[in-house]
Fold these 2 entries.
Entry 1:
Amino acid sequence: MLPRTIDWDGERIVLVDQTALPDVRLTSVTGVDGLVDAIGRLVVRGAPALGVAGALGVVLAVRTVGPAGLDAACARIAAARPTAANLAVGVARARAALPAGPDAVLAAALAVRDEDIAACHAIGARGAALLGELCGPGPLRLHTHCNAGALACVEWGTALGVVRSLHGLGRVAHVVADETRPLLQGARITAVELAAIGVPYRVVVDGAGASVIARGLVDAVVVGADRVAANGDVANKIGTYPLALAAARAGIPFLVAAPESTVDPATPDGAHIVIEERAADEVVHGHPAWNPAFDVTPHDLVTAVVTEARVWRPG
Ligand code: MRU
């Protein structure tokens, strides 16, 4: 059983250090500088977990930064990574409680945590039901990319929440998990989660993903999201878009599982989503590299976005 990915112990933010996975190590953060550093180094990662980190970061800011520095501290946390919508949403939720005092800020941050848990369970159940409608009763062969599991949220997960819900019904044959270059969230994190819950799985290199679909080895693709634009374009970990293309070509469903906090009505379409560029040395040493962390899947390739509130068919 994995510990909660992110939590509050009364004094500090407690995190599963995602850089150490597959070893499960807890670490804690007590100040804004430490949190901004942890977000940048992906000690905490995954859009829903970043939302909770943002909200709890405001709690740290209230405790450790004087009133004059509070706005700047909140802005730094919100900008620590640009693509996941949830980070700034989490900061804004906790910050809105500032006029009511520190206890209200903490209560708002803990509500972000608790709502994420509830949202993931609802997404899982809704996504499982939808896959039953689209693919039949199963057992289903599913394909996922990156990590959209418990370790990207507080617990349960979004795309892997769908897998968990289906698995609970005995309806998962196996999961294909892309390794997810360059930081291997699929091989290091998703694989660990699937092993922990007893779902049969295989890791494939990213370059194999589209041909796995073309060869008819999976029935549906289920991924998470970092930001969903108002028109349904989806930013997710780099390498997602080729899976959507292959799924469309093969005529199988491409589902996006994400909480409403990932849907950003202020971003009209994918062209307006800021794609994080990360350091070249994550890709290769001694050579120039281009390292975009996310790509955008156009809404016409998305069968449905499944949230805790709805099944949205943007295509
Ligand atoms: O760079 P990361 O690891 O923070 O990337 C986020 C992700 O884990 C994925 O893109 C995921 O599919 C969406 S978050 C559940």
Entry 2:
Amino acid sequence: MKKYMLNEFNELKNKENLTILAIESSCDETAVSVVRNGREVLSNVVASQIEIHRRFGGVVPEIASRNHLMAISNLYEQALKSAGVKAEELDAIAVTYGAGLVGALLVGINFAKGLSYALKKPLIAINHVHGHIASNYISHPDLKPPFLCLMVSGGHTALLKITDYNKFKLLGTTVDDAVGEAFDKVARVLGLPYPGGPEIDKLAKEGKNNIKFTVSNSLHATLNFSFSGIKTSVINYVHKFDQKKEDFCKADVARSFEEAVTDELVEKSIRAMRLTGMKKVVIAGGVGANSMLKSKMSKKCKEKGFEAYFPVLKYCTDNAAMIGSAAYYYIRSGIGLAPLDLTARPSIDL
Ligand code: KG4
Ligand code: ZN
């Protein structure tokens, strides 16, 4: 059977200018963006549900889906209006189809399918992780592969060798928790609000690195990561004080944890650079907003003659502009055309 909109999709491959409407709803941010030629963000609207989920200490999937549903039509209108683009002028509709929460993803996917069908524009299915990588293309107009990518989000922690826009080789990944997950759990045990990463980042600035929390040594020889051991050490440390009803310095815990985790991320990235011969490391994902990671990685890279790239803050965490950028490079590579029975994928290989 012929693929849905195959001819229209093929025509886009060589079209000079591409204007893409992108939708992201994989977790607790509903986002719509219009991006031109993979680098120029014409509009980027995000409705964050952080305040809604905060009182539950984390994302409640069902509540996330309902809120995506309530927000998405308005965001679509806003994204077109602030881009100054008419729906007929769009070349394609891009949407995150995984990884993420199934119910949340389905809201974005179904809305995108409706648009694709009504506007007769190809539907492009985007891997969320590829979107995070592309957040650097909109942040750094001159950045091009090849480079090494350190992917650090709430769902992933990985090192990838990227030799072209759509050529990814996985060098190492976490064997247990993602680093963002570890930040969020440590924050929770310290009684900090959700999402914990930015809270730890802030609190650590007031603390001392005086508690010995270490990242598991068992993966030392590899480029894989493990963060569940250090997370458990922090939880045990806090519980011991709680049981004795004694006080401890939360800022010192945050600082000591953050130091150990960022050392590990920097050390393995530098090692991966040496092993692959790459000269640039590109950080992607929400934990890329971490100030200690940014300063340590930049300093170490400078010492070694490497370059470190971080996405600008608003593109670190989930947004649709990064999905629109990734979609541009999918189309140029002739990949990503999706059928109208596209469905959500809660997990996808990197
Ligand atoms: O990429 P992202 O928005 O969503 C996923 O695709 O997972 O990442 C969210 C993660 C959360 O775990 C959050 O706590 C973490 O990124 N995060 C941070 C900081 N800002 C966000 N972690 C450490 N320091 C930060 N400043
Ligand atoms: Zn994300």
